[in-house]
Design brief:
2 strands, about 5% strand, mainly alpha, two-stranded antiparallel sheet, binds zinc ion
Length: about 80
């Protein structure tokens, strides 16, 4: 029983770390350091940290050709330009 509980906690821990990394990644940050912080300080610290990060995504629009997000002043993205 103890082992099962440990396994569940481990899965929850990894899931929480992954969640924190995903939040950071969605905001345009390097997920790596949030993942490291989550692993070292538990996801209980990592998830709020990721949520507090400023949104680094460029405010803008989609490239008309490939739908990648580009700056609003740009006409096409770096791949299509
Ligand atoms: Zn493009």
């Amino acid at each position: 029983m103890g082992e099962l509980l440990q396994l569940l906690l481990f899965i929850a821990y990894i899931g929480g770390c992954w969640k924190a990394a995903r939040i950071a990644n969605d905001k345009g940050h390097t997920a790596y350091y949030v993942l490291v912080v989550s692993i070292l300080l538990t996801p209980i610290a990592g998830i709020p940290m990721a949520m507090l990060l400023k949104d680094h995504r460029p405010e803008g629009k989609e490239c008309p050709f490939c739908k990648e997000m580009i700056y609003k002043e740009a006409i096409v993205c770096k791949h299509c330009g």
